[in-house]
């Protein structure tokens, strides 16, 4: 069974927790896009971990973990992540990296920093070089990780790419040297070489033999390069369609798509966010939900659940089910709201909208009774207060996708499963 887990909002929905949850039964977990710029926070019996690149399946000793060709890899950061896991007693031998994954090189990070500083309007990148690495990939002067195998050829290719980059942005010459970069890369190469291979035979075999293959995305639909709030988007395709290209799996092989959404909305970085709350409720959600980025520590803006975005995602991703995360965070609010559509002047709007329009629209809400009970100990759907169940069922009606999982806390066990 091939099972894709995708972000239904702006990212940070709690995909990490759900992938960790599903990974218990998975034979293989594949990351299909993105780089080390987002972070998954995972809490399990081994402790608390912020994973940036390594698939969350790494905690399960029988699960193969794959970084697909659609991923971009900062080799130095990946080595640090692997070392941290090893130090915590988690074996990392089962990590396999597609030889086709592109490298995020030090000069990509310099470029990211330089460009974000000199831009008149910030994109709000995480300054990790992910965007520039994807630009080089598309521009056909990127370097694939498999090229590190042959050091002489790799050095020549790197030299040429680096010189090309300096011709493009001469200021980068002051931000670091080729030799320092080379030394770092060669140290990382030693650690990564055994993990690099052609992943197609491994993945094909897993799919053909009906093993449980989990596809793990980064970010969410609203940050998709093509279908998100361009230009406030990532440089790859987090949508379910991206799984096929990035992981090397035919689209017809995908059996199940779980959309992950919080019970409210959060976003980091710039760009439109119609349901954003800059009032005490926004502060309540931020505080209670600990809405700070796992990689950057940046505060996430918070607001009510944006149903048009969920419906839009339901079409694009073909969700077979939703997982509703952080329902516990809403406890204590007298009323809760769902944004059902938007308004501008005397017109109503639904998603998709281009960013400039999404920036202007006003959200229209449906208000439902809140609940005060602590949900963190609820094990079954029936344990939830009636108002919380009403909220869940209303989301289902509006999005027309069943909410199969409800998360009421960060731990694996704090997950309510509803039978279809
Ligand atoms: P991801 O990138 O989509 O995995 O999301 P993050 O890991 O950045 O953010 C999710 C955060 O919420 C993490 O700190 C999780 O431990 C936490 N979390 C996940 N599910 C729940 C939940 O149901 N309730 C609460 N209170 N926290 C949760």
Short description:
The chain has 420 residues and is an alpha/beta fold. It is built from twelve helices and 20 strands. The strands form five sheets. A ten-stranded mixed β-sheet has the order 9-7-5-2-10-1-11-15-19-20, with helices on both faces.
Write the layout of secondary structure elements.
Elements lengths: L1 E6 L7 H9 L4 E4 L8 E5 L2 E5 L12 E4 L4 E2 L1 H13 L7 E4 L3 E2 L2 H13 L11 H10 L11 H18 L9 H15 L3 E2 L2 H9 L4 E8 L19 H8 L6 E9 L2 E3 L12 H9 L12 E3 L1 E2 H11 L3 E5 L9 E10 L2 E3 L5 H4 L3 E8 L16 H14 L3 E5 L7 E3 L3
Parallel strand pairs: 1-10, 1-11, 2-5, 2-10, 5-7, 6-8, 7-9, 11-15, 14-16, 15-19
Antiparallel strand pairs: 3-4, 12-13, 16-17, 16-18, 19-20
Helix pairs in contact: 2-6, 3-4
Bound molecules: guanosine-5'-diphosphate.
Guanosine-5'-diphosphate (GDP) binds next to helix 1 and strand 3.
Structural overview:
Helices cover 32% and strands 22% of the residues. The chain has 12 helices and 20 strands. It has a 10-stranded mixed beta sheet with strand order 9-7-5-2-10-1-11-15-19-20, sandwiched between helices. Strands 14, 16, 17 and 18 form a 4-stranded mixed beta sheet that branches. A hairpin with a 7-residue loop joins strand 19 (403-407) and strand 20. The two termini are 18 Å apart. The protein binds guanosine-5'-diphosphate. Residues 12-17, 38-41, 43, 290, 294, 325-326, 328-329, 407-410 line the site of guanosine-5'-diphosphate (GDP). Guanosine-5'-diphosphate binds at residues 12-17, 38-41, 43, 290, 294, 325-326, 328-329, 407-410.
């Amino acid at each position: 069974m091939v099972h894709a887990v995708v972000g239904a909002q702006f990212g940070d929905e709690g995909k990490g927790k759900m992938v960790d949850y599903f990974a218990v039964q998975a034979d293989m977990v594949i990351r299909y896009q993105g780089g080390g710029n987002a972070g998954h926070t995972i809490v399990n019996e081994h402790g608390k971990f912020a994973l940036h690149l390594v698939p969350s399946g790494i905690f399960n000793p029988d699960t193969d973990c794959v970084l697909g060709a659609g991923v971009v890899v900062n080799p130095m950061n990946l080595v640090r992540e692997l070392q941290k896991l090893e130090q915590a007693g988690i074996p990392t031998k089962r990590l396999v990296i597609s030889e086709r994954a592109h490298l995020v090189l030090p000069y990509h990070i310099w470029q990211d920093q330089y460009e974000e500083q000199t831009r008149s309007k910030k994109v709000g990148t995480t300054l990790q070089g992910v965007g520039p690495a994807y630009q080089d990939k598309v521009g056909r002067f990127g370097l694939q990780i498999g090229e590190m195998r042959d050091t002489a050829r790799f050095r020549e290719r790197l030299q040429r790419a680096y010189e090309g980059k300096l011709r493009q942005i001469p200021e980068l010459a002051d931000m670091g040297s080729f030799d320092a970069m080379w030394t770092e890369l060669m140290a990382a190469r030693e650690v990564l070489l055994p993990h690099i291979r052609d992943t197609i035979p491994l993945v094909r075999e897993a799919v053909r033999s009906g093993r449980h293959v989990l596809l793990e995305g980064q970010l969410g639909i609203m940050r998709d390069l093509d279908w998100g709030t361009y230009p406030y988007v990532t440089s790859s395709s987090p949508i379910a369609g991206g799984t096929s290209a990035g992981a090397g799996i035919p689209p017809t092989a995908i059996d199940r798509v779980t959309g992950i959404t919080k019970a409210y909305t959060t976003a980091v970085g710039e760009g439109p966010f119609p349901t954003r709350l800059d009032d005490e409720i926004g502060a309540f959600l931020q505080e209670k939900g600990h809405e700070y980025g796992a990689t950057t520590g940046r505060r996430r803006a918070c607001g009510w659940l944006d149903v048009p975005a969920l419906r839009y995602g339901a079409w694009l991703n073909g969700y077979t089910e939703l997982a509703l995360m952080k329902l516990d965070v809403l406890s204590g609010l007298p009323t809760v709201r769902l944004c059902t559509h938007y308004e501008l002047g005397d017109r109503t709007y639904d998603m998709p909208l281009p960013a400039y329009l999404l920036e202007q629209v006003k959200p229209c809400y449906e208000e439902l009774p809140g609940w005060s009970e602590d949900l963190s100990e609820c094990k079954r759907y029936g344990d939830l207060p009636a108002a919380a169940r009403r909220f869940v069922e209303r989301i289902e009606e509006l999005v027309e996708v069943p909410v199969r999982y409800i998360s009421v806390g960060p731990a694996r066990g704090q997950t309510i499963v509803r039978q279809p």
